[in-house]
Amino acid sequence: MRPISEAYKDFPILKREHNGHRLIYLDSGATAQIPQMVADRVVNHMLYHNGNPHRGSHILAIEASEAYENARERVVEFINAREREEIIFTRNSTESMNLIAYSYGLNNLQAGDKIVITVAEHHANLVTWQFVANKTGATLEYMYLDESGHLKDGEINKIDEYTKIVAFAHVSNVLGMEFPVKELTDKAHSVGAVVVLDGAQSTPHMKVDMQELDCDFFVFSGHKMCASQGIGVLYGKRALLEAMPPFLLGGDMIEYVKEQTTTFNELPYKFEAGTPNADGAVALHAAMDYLDSFGMDAIEAYEEELVAYVLPKLMDIPHVHVIGSTNAKEKHGVIAFTVDDVHPHDVATILDSKGICVRSGHHCAQPLGAFYKVAASTRLSMYLYTRKEDLDAFLDVLKTVRTVMGFED
Ligand code: PMP
Fold first, then answer.
1. pLDDT digit string (tens) for 179-205?
2. Which end of the chain is more exposed for a tag (fewer CB within 10 A), N or C?
3. Which of 94, 170, 178, 220 to mutate to test the pocket of ligand 1 (most atoms within 8 A of CB)?
């Protein structure tokens, strides 16, 4: 295994300067940066092996098919799925979620049924279910949280015999909180509901194991785990995917097409219409190799160490308030906070003026903001290339924010 302390050297972008300062990237929850070796493997694929996967019998079509299918096999291994038929390539978590909503949700729910989600969901795992509820007559019910981001006692009992879908984030993109997957999944399965787990913020940062998690669907995005943008994954249990109709229609997802009728291809191709993102699949394959060269457990432990380092210092700054849990073990590299009287966009702009990138806004989780009465916040999010000196620089600038804005302290 490689030591994580070396990781930052692999990222050319971290050698950039911005506003006369070393660029410090603390927005990995939005998108992660790309190591040289991932870019090299993509460029090599594009320059020497580019062809249209599954179309044609010449060498380049064959090599592109191999690269694309090898990436699929690598995903099977990385998330410990059972078989390649369970892995569908999409553009991102959002598209994966839409595939589930349109293909499973619209066809399996009806009036009287319930969809249960948490109030902390990213809009990708929320607007989709509002849509399904509106179209089918099902009800959308929320499980609420306490101040520290944990599910309130008894909320799990909203999962009852009427519940058909239970959807929640494995790790919240605002709170950093890992929801109790086993408890929620066991409860959902005990009433015959399917579990949709949003792995966008967990897959890049910890070992995820489909057979252990036992969710029915799982989604994640390559760009949050050192691959390029535009490649994502939907994992689904085979029996469910087999029974679902296609989501997008067109080339490659068919078996036979006659003038009036079509039969559909087998899994996973039934859900992959049109020319796929083979470059993205190659990038994802390389990114999984890259992350595994350090070990996912080591990455998770390193991020916990970073949070344990920065969180108490952050909380010591007057007028700064951390949202959700203040236990370093529960933050998974994500800390959202507010600064009294200063809009998060101003906080982010002041940090940016010193070369530091953080996220500000509602983080695509507006119902959570409304629930906590914090419409917007600033978020720093870390990854394996983050260093303590980056966090020191962040803290130094953050301490000046209120005075820059004209407050006395
Ligand atoms: N779910 C969560 C928890 C996320 O953090 C994100 C990205 N911010 C998404 C879903 C959507 O991911 P994407 O934009 O890659 O589709």
1. 999 999 999 999 999 999 999 999 999
2. C
3. 94
pLDDT bracket for residue 409 (50, 70, 90)? confident
Mean pLDDT of 256-280: 96
Atom of ligand 1 nearest to the CA of 96: 16
Percent of the chain scored above 70 by pLDDT? 100
Q: Is 201 in the pocket of ligand 1 (CB under 6 A)?
A: yes
Report which protein residue has its CA nearest ligand 1's atom 4.
200
Residue 92 CA, ligand 1 centroid: distance in Å: 8
0.85 exceeded by pTM: yes
Q: What are phi and psi of 105, to 5 degrees?
A: -60, -55
Give 244 Cα–ligand 1 centroid separation in angstroms.
24
Q: Which pLDDT score, from 0 to 100, does residue 275 have?
A: 96
C-alpha triplet 262, 263, 265: angle, nearest 5°: 125
Enzyme catalytic residues: 364
Tell me if 221 CB under 6 Å of ligand 1. Answer: yes
> Is the pLDDT assigned to residue 233 strictly greater than 90?
yes
Count the helices and strands in the chain (H runs, E runs).
14, 17
Distance CA 289, CA 216 (A): 25
214 three-class SS: coil
Ligand 1 centroid distance, CA of 145 (Å): 20
Count other Cβ atoms within 10 Å, centred on residue 130: 14
**Would the CB of 203 count as within 6 Å of ligand 1?**
no
CB 169 less than 6 A from any atom of ligand 1:
yes
Residue 55 backbone phi and psi in degrees, to 5: -130, 115
Look at strands 194-198 and 163-169 and give their pairing: parallel
Task: Report whether the peptide linkage leading into residue 268 is cis, meaning its omega lies within 30 degrees of zero.
Answer: yes
**Angle subtended at Cα 236 by Cα 230 and Cα 239, rounded to the nearest 5 degrees:** 145
The full set of domains in the chain, from first to last, is 4-30+295-404 (3.90.1150.10), 39-292 (3.40.640.10)
Q: Per-residue confidence at 78, pLDDT binned at 50, 70, 90?
A: very high
Question: What is the 45 CA–ligand 1 centroid distance (Å)?
Answer: 27
Distance CA 338, CA 192 (A): 41
- For residue 44, CA distances in Å to 16, 50, 282, 297 come to 24, 9, 10, 30
Residue 390 has pLDDT above 90, yes or no: yes
Residue 157 structure tokens = 């009992």
Cβ(194)–Cβ(215) below 8 Å: no
